[in-house]
């Protein structure tokens, strides 16, 4: 069993079954996640942090648990300091993870599936199809190796990055595994992120959305992209099965933390969904909901038929929303020249063959 797929209470149950004090679970989590101790390595190299740790327990941990993390195969850095990592799992499958710089804190864009079944026409990942879901320990592993890489590149300890489940895959299509990974991210003696530090983005997968109350109260974002059904059908085929009105009703029923909004992502595509008429329908559709519109200028990828609108049109669209008191922001495009921006992730042959390059943040 891989250790990184364990919640603290599950580790306590394991300790109980092997006649070890339950209090060791807290210590083990702190050593693994806060001190970043690898128990297998430490057992062989007499790590000073484990001087007072029971030898028998250390040996049993090494026997019963796998502490292996996924491996970074390639790294690419854009001019804006965004870093895209191609990360490989034990079965040879790979996904891309992106480390995004902001003013005071970085964010890690995590994948939840190898490929994706949603087949959204604006997304490069959707052209791959779905290979498999990621397990909880693999999702945790993506975060840990990216965080470690971040610290190694900068040469200093860094503040824990935030998380957005906006990489490859539909998170709610992998509901149980993403839910458990999220719970592990929030463990007090583990990585210890807060609910507001994690955002999950969904294309509108209703079976998962209807169970979302089972999740911790993290932030949720909807890939909306058009409030006109015919256009949303073209962008997100899932809309034909679960129409936007149904999805918005489900979202409106979700409990929220104080001052917590629903983020609606709106991909602006030139001459497709960027007109005043599109804005009018959008305003009418979401006017009674506690939302913030995140406007995303389309990020081109090989083979795409869509184009990015001019900056002036993006600004104009934002102003149309704000006149009607709809809060909106424009997402700054980051990492597009290395295909690391929203909708551009794709594990291709170029990435598989590329050499790992040194990066500077």
Summary, kept brief:
The protein is built from twelve helices and twelve strands. It is α/β, with parallel strands linked by helices and 361 residues long. The strands form two sheets. Strands 1-2-3-4-7-8-9-10-11-12 form a ten-stranded mixed beta sheet, with helices on one face.
Instruction: Kindly report the spatial arrangement of strands forming the biggest sheet.
Output: 1-2-3-4-7-8-9-10-11-12
Measured as a percent range, the helix fraction is: 25-40%
Count of DSSP-assigned helices? 12
> Taking all residues together, what is the mean pLDDT?
88
Kindly describe this structure.
The protein is α/β, with parallel strands linked by helices. It has 12 helices and 12 strands. A 10-stranded mixed β-sheet has the order 1-2-3-4-7-8-9-10-11-12, covered by helices on one side. A two-stranded antiparallel ribbon has the order 5-6. Helix 1 (8-17) crosses helix 2 (24-34) and helix 5 (136-154) crosses helix 6 (175-185). The longest helix is centred in the middle third of the chain and has 19 residues, at 136-154. It is elongated and about 70 Å long.
């Amino acid at each position: 069993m891989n250790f990184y797929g364990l919640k603290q209470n599950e580790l306590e149950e394991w300790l109980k079954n092997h006649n070890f004090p339950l209090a060791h679970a807290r210590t083990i989590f702190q050593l693994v996640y806060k001190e970043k101790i690898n128990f297998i390595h430490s057992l062989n190299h007499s790590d000073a942090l484990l001087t007072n740790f029971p030898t028998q327990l250390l040996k049993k941990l090494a026997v019963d648990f796998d502490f292996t993390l996924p491996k970074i195969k390639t790294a690419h850095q854009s001019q804006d300091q965004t870093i895209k990592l191609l990360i490989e799992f034990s079965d040879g499958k790979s996904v891309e993870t992106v480390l995004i710089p902001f003013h005071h804190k970085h964010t890690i864009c995590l994948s939840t599936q190898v490929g994706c079944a949603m087949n959204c026409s604006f997304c490069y990942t959707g052209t791959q199809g779905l290979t498999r879901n990621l397990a909880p320990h693999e999702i945790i592993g993506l975060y840990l190796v990216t965080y470690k890489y971040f610290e190694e590149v900068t040469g200093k300890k860094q503040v824990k990055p935030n998380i957005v489940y906006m990489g490859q895959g539909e998170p709610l299509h992998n509901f149980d595994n993403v839910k458990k990974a999220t719970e592990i991210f929030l463990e007090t003696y583990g990585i210890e992120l807060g609910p507001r530090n994690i955002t999950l983005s969904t294309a509108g997968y209703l079976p998962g959305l209807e169970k979302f109350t089972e999740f911790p109260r993290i932030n949720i974002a909807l890939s909306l992209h058009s409030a006109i059904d015919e256009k949303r059908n073209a962008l997100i085929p899932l809309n034909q099965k679960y129409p936007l009105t149904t999805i918005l009703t489900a979202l409106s029923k979700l409990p929220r933390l104080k001052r917590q909004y629903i983020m609606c992502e709106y991909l602006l595509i030139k001459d497709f969904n960027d007109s005043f008429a599109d804005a009018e329908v959008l305003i009418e559709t979401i006017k009674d909901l506690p939302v913030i519109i995140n406007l995303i200028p389309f990020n081109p990828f090989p083979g795409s038929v869509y184009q990015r609108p001019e900056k002036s049109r993006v600004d104009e669209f934002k102003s149309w929303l704000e006149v009607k008191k709809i809060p909106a922001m424009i997402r700054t495009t980051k990492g597009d020249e290395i295909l690391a921006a929203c909708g551009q992730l794709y594990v291709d042959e170029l990435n598989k063959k590329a050499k790992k390059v040194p990066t500077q943040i």
